[in-house]
Specification:
The protein has about 160 residues and is of the alpha+beta class. It is about 50% helix and about 20% strand. A hairpin with a 7-residue loop joins strand 2 and strand 3. Helix 3 runs antiparallel to helix 4 and helix 4 crosses helix 5. The longest helix has 23 residues.
């Protein structure tokens, strides 16, 4: 992937960042390496991503057209709660690593259905499902803010 200054990317599956500079640093005492600086939009800090690991750690934002297509498809698909939290968590983690928005949205929908099913019997959603849902929601909300309004939603 080519990176340009100011481009938005997803770092480690959860944090939207803007690309900064390509710099040389010696963090390990074994010689200088090339790093891409990235700046998380919700934190006042800079991360250094090794150039040779950038394609693994950084994923592009979903194109606006694909997001709209997924939203339209979600309107017609009915999510089913399979009740298998472990499988859902593995799918979710893998989807974050790969930047697979379709699976992320599918898991969110499944967690939502599980929440409704558990509420009917007076039960709470499992903590891991709740955490994953909130993490995915933050990511998707942030991407929507960038794609449609070119700004990040705070909080």
């Amino acid at each position: 992937m080519n990176y340009t200054k100011g481009q938005y990317v997803i770092y480690s599956g959860t944090e939207i960042c803007s690309i900064g500079e390509i710099v040389k640093r010696n963090f390990d005492g074994e010689g200088e390496k090339d790093y891409i600086t990235i700046n998380p939009l919700e934190l006042n800090t800079t991360f250094y991503v090794p150039w040779d690991k950038a394609d693994y750690a950084l994923k592009p934002l979903m194109p606006k057209e694909k997001l709209l297509e997924l939203i339209e498809r979600m309107k017609t698909e009915t999510a089913q709660s399979r009740g298998n939290t472990e499988s859902r968590n593995i799918n979710f983690r893998d989807a974050l690593k790969e930047g697979n928005h379709e699976v992320i949205l599918s898991v969110m929908s499944e967690i939502y259905m599980e929440k409704l099913n558990r509420a009917e019997s007076g039960k709470q959603l499992y903590k891991m499902d709740k955490r994953n849902f909130e993490l995915a929601k933050k990511l998707i909300d942030s991407e929507i803010s960038i794609l449609f309004w070119n700004r990040i939603k705070r909080g």
